[in-house]
Predict the 3D structure of the following.
Amino acid sequence: MVNPRWRPEIANSRNANKTVQKDKRQQEFAFPATEEYTGSHIKSDLGGVKVSNKSYERYYKGMV
């Protein structure tokens, strides 16, 4: 049985609005500013970004 109140233009417009909102969110996104690394790596490459902990470098300077 066919629903007499169903209209294809309404159903299609719902899908179109979701894609518009998704594109709008992608344009508004910005990466946060990078912060100084404070982890346990002395000198390393994490995900293509060179990181180093300055205090560990000073402490282990003769060993590394």
About this structure: Residues 27 and 54 are 36 Å apart (CA to CA). The helical segments are 8-28, 54-59. The radius of gyration is 26 Å. The chain is about 40% helix and 10% strand.
